[in-house]
Amino acid sequence: MSASLISSDIDFETEGKHTGYLRLPHSVHRSAYGRILIPIVMIENGEGPTCF
């Protein structure tokens, strides 16, 4: 399986409320190093479901 090209600045292993972005690489003719920012929020507090 290959590694994902999508990166994030959120630590998915820690509890609490976290906000940030998923960074999706996006290449166009004028710039080969562009990216699309996708907002993300994660809420986790102990055992049970986690909300993304």
Features:
single chain, 52 residues, mainly beta, three-stranded antiparallel β-sheet, 3 strands
Question: How would the blueprint of this fold be written?
Answer:
Layout: E1 7-8, E2 16-28, E3 31-44
Antiparallel strand pairs: 1-2, 2-3
Outline the structure in words.
This protein has strands at 7-8, 16-28, 31-44. A three-stranded antiparallel β-sheet has the order 1-2-3, with no helix packed on it. It is mostly beta strands and 52 residues long. It has one domain (7-44). It is 0% helix and 56% strand. It has no helices and three strands. The model has no long low-confidence stretch (mean pLDDT 84).
Low-confidence stretches: none
Give the helices and strands as they follow along the chain. EEE
The tally of structural domains comes to 1
Number of E-state strands: 3
Describe this structure in a few short sentences.
0% of the residues lie in helices and 56% in strands. It contains no helices and three strands.
